[in-house]
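Researcher: Going back to the complex we discussed earlier. I've cleaned up the inputs and rechecked each line, so this should be the final set. Can you rerun the prediction on the complete assembly and write out the structure?
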Amino acid sequence: MNEKRPSGLKISPAMIWISSILLGLLSSVPQLASRHFNAAEAAVNAAITAAFALLMWYFNIYVLGRRSHQPRRQSISYRHLLGSLLFGLVVMFILAYIQQLILSHIDFGPTMLMVEVRGILINLVFYMFLYLLQQNHENQHVNMELERIRTDHLSAQYELLKQQVNPHFLFNSLNTLKAMVESGEQEAVPFIIKLSNFYRYTLESRKLDLIHVREEMEILSAYLFLQKARFEDGLMFHNELPPAVMETLLPPFTLQLLVENCIKHNVVSLEKPLHIRLYEDGGKIVVENHVQRKSGEEDSLGVGLENISMRYSHLSGGEVEVLNGQQLFQIKLPLIYEHHHR
Amino acid sequence: MNIIIVEDELKTAQSLERAILALKPASTITGRYQSVERTVKALTEGTMPDLIFMDIQLADGRCFEIFQQVKVTCPVVFCTAYDEYTLEAFKSNGWIIY
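Model: Rerun complete. Updated structure for the full complex:
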């Protein structure tokens, strides 16, 4: 969530100016009611309050704006509030002094006190108002971010589901099965069992975010069995994962999808067998194959791969590396350990 | 009758071969190829068969690439599950069976 920070608060200058002037006018209301009303005094008083309000508006916006670039905090910052209040006191003192210069006849002490109290009140109200606005702004931002992640996740799941019930795969499998039954092959029954297993895994792990590599290997071996029946020795799979890796986690159907991708984009034939290697290297699971691209294949990495990266970044924050070389095509998946999960 | 089967699915090729031999026991299957590359090689180096059964989607590309590389003088029967290739197949002078 280190993306865009909220861009800070936008408060229209009109609102700032109007509220400041109104506050100034309001502060001179008690003088209107007093017995010895002095128009000049009231005007100066109003002007000073308005000037103070203006200054505090901009000061607080500046301070809170700077704060929003720091890591997000839940509680109100008392340091900033105190700073703002102190600044307000100093400003008010200077303004009171100016008032004293203009209206030399009034008593400096009590006036100053009254003005300072007013200043603190104005300042507190502004600070709280801005703070609430900013908090609201940030909350909205966080909610939007959450919503975005949720949608991404849903669309990833949807894509996965579509791929799992891939009619093309079912069609090919049934075709193979038909040929096996025709020739009375003994392997037909295990083939049916593996096919039904594969679809059962789809149903079972559909709702899971992560499964053990060991479970994924079961899915993969059912899938490979079906594909081996189709391609025979045109497809060679080498599993060199150490046992320790079997206890780590990954999003379900990751390896199966990657192997399916290899088969989809490369020549798989008896003359040119496709070798797929699965091994561990530097804390990553590597799926590797020699590139023997089909002609007429555009150089696209496809939705499948994008989907896997998206699931990885949501579930573990890790990056899926894709090395699309001339000779070798490698996908590196970061290992996810159980204790990191939740 | 000499027949070539061009098909990337091994089992489909086998069952096609069985069907042909059952119907025409006198015919000989002179070759079974999975790829464009191998078919082109066989057709340029060997003799032209009397008939070719050909899948559209092959291991290394589409079968139409074969006709760009080699002059095929015998009839071709295209075997496919997809009708989207019909036109192209007719342009290559073929029959289509689904």
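Model: Worth noting: The CA atoms of residues 151 and 246 of chain A lie 31 Å apart.
Researcher: Good, that matches what I expected from the previous run.
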